Automatic annotation (TrEMBL):
The active site is at H141, C203. InterPro entries: Sortase (IPR005754), Sortase_D_2 (IPR042000), Sortase_dom-sf (IPR023365). It holds the Pfam family Sortase. This is Class D sortase. The lineage of its organism: Bacteria, Bacillati, Bacillota, Bacilli, Bacillales. It comes from the Bacteria. The keyword DNA-binding does not apply. The keyword Transferase does not apply. SUPFAM superfamilies: Sortase. It comes from Paenibacillus sp. SYP-B3998. Keywords: Hydrolase.
């Protein structure tokens, strides 16, 4: 009986070990979709709150009643929900990265920490700002699952378009260059002092990586 129980336990553990990569991958995909959904819902809440503020601001400050003028006091909307949502957006999500060429749509998390990189792509601290002169750098892992995170970044070519959607504005960047560099080549993170750039970074090859894929693009009007 003991041997049979031990065998069943070993089989069960073996199945768990085999399924873990798949289950972990699906969980990460679920988390990405959850972040995107929450991001979209937050934007809707902000828009609704703004609409309510505009509607109330249109209410006249004085209302004639039986020949007399009664001064009304507008009811102030609580700014807490909007402030809270905006604060959370600013803290966690900077926007959504979209590359139609490789069917990519991912939330951009703020700061490329270990935890953030497990969930999605993330901006690298102390690089440029989105839409501003400088080099806005985004890093992401390459997963073995096809199309996951920056798995297909090497398919992006010069001339392809990269979009970053902040909810209130869309930024379009045109790919200018694709490089394969060593990990210590941090010069790729620096801006040239005149252009509004974006740089996407991931490891290469996917297994036992020795280099980095660098996709550099410049802001264009669209």
């Amino acid at each position: 009986m003991t041997k049979r129980t031990l065998s069943l336990v070993c089989i069960f553990l073996g199945i768990i070990i085999l399924l873990y990569p798949t289950l972990n991958d699906r969980y990460e995909s679920y988390q990405q979709q959850r972040i995107l959904k929450q991001w979209q819902e937050n934007l809707q809440h902000i828009d609704q709150a703004a609409s309510e503020t505009e509607r109330i601001s249109e209410v006249p400050s004085s209302i004639p009643v039986d020949g007399a003028t009664v001064h009304s006091q507008p009811v102030a909307l609580s700014a807490e929900p909007t402030t809270s949502v905006a604060s959370m957006m600013q803290k966690n999500v900077e926007g959504v990265l979209i590359i139609d060429k490789i069917n990519l749509k991912l939330p951009i998390l703020k700061d490329a920490t270990v935890d953030n990189m497990k969930l999605s792509v993330a901006s690298i601290a102390n690089t440029g700002k989105l839409g501003a002169v400088g080099n806005y750098a985004i890093a992401g892992h390459r997963n073995l699952t096809y199309g996951k995170n920056f798995n297909r970044l090497d398919e992006v070519a010069v001339g392809d378009m990269i979009e970053v959607d902040t909810g209130s504005k869309q930024y379009w960047y045109k790919v200018q260059d694709k490089l394969y560099v060593l990990p210590e080549d941090v010069w790729v993170l620096k801006g040239n002092g005149k252009d509004q750039e974006i740089t996407l970074i991931t490891c290469h090859p996917m297994e036992n990586p020795t280099h980095r894929i660098i996709v550099k693009a410049k802001l264009v009007e669209k």
